[in-house]
Amino acid sequence: MIAIIDYGIGNLHSVAKAVEKLGERPEITSDPEQLRNSRGIILPGVGSFGEAMAELERKELVPVIRSLAEEKKFFLGICLGSQLLFEKSQEAPTTKGLSLIPGEVRRLPPTNNVPHMGWNQVYFQQTTSL
């Protein structure tokens, strides 16, 4: 079972359909026990960094997510869910992220179209296991 974290902000059903298409059984949940018993976890998200972190805190999911990440459980953040993995974001400067990845999510420079859609080249500044 692949757990899709339900914290009230996200594209849950489209993510569940994608997981089904891959031949896996999705479970939309905010239950810590289901998260612990899953083969992997997906953190989707749409909206603002600050509101999303507030909801994860309100549902008491932050310590569970951090614990499972430390255990090296498969974990995927999608869209805002991937931004939440960082320490902080310029969008909500006083809000701490999950701090699973060091760094800050920054606004795209004005030379890029916003919202930005499409494919880009990723340039790594250091070697990573990803």
Structure description:
With 130 residues, the protein is of the alpha/beta class. The protein has helices at residues 12-21, 32-37, 49-58, 62-70, 80-83, and strands at 2-5, 26-29, 40-43, 74-77, 86-89, 101-105. It is 30% helix and 19% strand. The mean pLDDT is 91.
In terms of DSSP E residues, the strand content is 15-25%
Q: Give the structural class.
A: alpha/beta
Largest sheet, in brief, is: 4 strands, parallel
- The run of helices and strands is EHEHEHHEHEE
Radius of gyration: 15 Å
Give me the number of helical elements: 5
The number of E-state strands comes to 6
Short key terms for the protein model shown above:
single chain; 130 residues; 5 helices; 19% strand; globular; alpha/beta; four-stranded parallel β-sheet; two-stranded parallel ribbon
Blueprint (SSEs and pairs):
Layout lengths: L1 E4 L6 H10 L4 E4 L2 H6 L2 E4 L5 H10 L3 H9 L3 E4 L2 H4 L2 E4 L11 E5 L25
Parallel strand pairs: 1-2, 1-3, 3-4, 5-6
Condensed summary:
This protein has five helices and six strands; from the N terminus they run βαβαβααβαββ. With 130 residues, the chain is of the alpha/beta class.
